[in-house]
């Protein structure tokens, strides 16, 4: 028989045993919703971790008092071309005084002339260089340049952010693996029950000479169909919950690319779950059916 026959039989099986198909599709949908929710939570955790890492990945280079204008310009140009520097911003004496007044409010009036504050260059470090070791080396290098008084960055906060990010990734991968394994077990057992419900049909097909592979293929097509539908349902449910959660926090909706990636990923995973669950269940059960 050709491929169209197996596809046609797979769709027909889906329509013949509606309750069994509903049970399998529901199992896949529930499993994918769990995976999808976990993936969204992990994504948001990584976004927050990256945001904190970006904030901690800032460095300020204070220019020495009395440094000549040419020295300051050369220093600023040299900082801009340094590897690992994503952006830099020069803060003059006057701007530093204004920032001081805004941050300290009335307490800033204690200083009649806060222009004593040194000029500086604020550096935004590229994400790949935002680690304690890389930034420590950058600070040490810049500190030796002419015209530099001091280089400051929050090394303790950066180390804590990097450590927490690694911990989040490790926990996420571990829990994700557990959820996926539990989902495969749930789907495989549900599909096994649906195949068991058709044991008489399978026995009849084998009695008339059908091979195990021939009997199994329509079930694989059916598993793919169930996984596809389960993925669509799970994708819609997870995306709806995600948007509702973001609306409650007054956050902007994610991009269309993220939406398509989430739904497409769940549909693809659903088809893999449906096919693998059908393959494992059908192969074991069909092989063990007695013909007498």
Kindly describe this structure.
The chain is of the alpha+beta class and 292 residues long. It has two domains: 178 residues, no CATH class; 95 residues, Alpha-Beta Plaits (2-Layer Sandwich). 72% of the residues lie in helices and 8% in strands. It is built from nine helices and four strands; from the N terminus they run H-H-E-H-E-H-E-H-E-H-H-H-H. Strands 2-3-1-4 form a four-stranded antiparallel sheet. The mean pLDDT is 78.
What is the structure about, briefly put?
The protein has 9 helices and 4 strands. It is an alpha+beta fold and 292 residues long.
SSE layout and pairing:
Elements: H1 3-16, H2 18-56, E1 58-63, H3 69-80, E2 85-91, H4 93-104, E3 120-125, H5 132-143, E4 148-152, H6 155-196, H7 199-207, H8 212-248, H9 256-288
Antiparallel strand pairs: 1-3, 1-4, 2-3
Helix pairs in contact: 1-8, 2-6, 2-8, 2-9, 6-9, 8-9
- In N-to-C order, the SSE pattern is HHEHEHEHEHHHH
Chain-averaged pLDDT = 78
Distance between the termini: 26 Å
Instruction: Return the structural class.
Output: alpha+beta
Strand arrangement across the biggest beta sheet = 2-3-1-4
């Amino acid at each position: 028989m050709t491929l169209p026959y197996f596809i046609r039989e797979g769709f027909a099986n889906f329509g013949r045993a509606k309750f069994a198909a509903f049970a399998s599709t529901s199992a896949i949908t529930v499993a994918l919703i769990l995976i999808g929710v976990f993936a969204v939570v992990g994504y948001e955790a990584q976004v927050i971790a990256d945001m904190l890492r970006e904030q901690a990945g800032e460095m300020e280079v204070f220019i020495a008092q009395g440094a000549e204008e040419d020295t300051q310009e050369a220093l600023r140009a040299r900082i801009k071309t340094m590897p690992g520097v994503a952006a830099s911003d020069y803060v003059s004496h006057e701007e530093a005084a204004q920032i001081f007044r805004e941050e300290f409010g009335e307490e800033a009036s204690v200083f009649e002339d806060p222009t004593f504050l040194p000029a500086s260059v604020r550096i935004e470090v590229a994400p790949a260089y935002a680690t304690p070791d890389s930034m420590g080396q950058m600070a040490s290098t810049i500190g030796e340049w002419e015209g530099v008084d001091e280089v400051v960055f929050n090394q303790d906060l950066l180390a804590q952010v990097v450590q927490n990010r690694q911990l989040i990734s490790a926990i996420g991968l571990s829990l994700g693996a557990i959820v996926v394994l539990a989902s495969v077990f749930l789907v495989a057992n549900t599909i096994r029950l649906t195949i068991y419900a058709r044991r008489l049909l399978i026995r009849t097909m084998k009695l008339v000479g059908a091979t195990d592979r021939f009997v199994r293929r329509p079930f694989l097509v059916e598993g793919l169909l169930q996984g596809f539908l389960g993925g669509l349902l799970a994708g819609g449910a997870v995306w709806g919950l995600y948007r509702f959660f973001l609306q409650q926090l007054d956050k902007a909706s994610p991009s269309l690319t993220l939406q398509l990636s989430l739904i497409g990923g769940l549909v693809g995973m659903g088809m893999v779950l449906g096919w693998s669950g059908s393959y494992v269940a059908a192969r074991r059960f069909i092989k063990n059916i007695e013909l007498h």
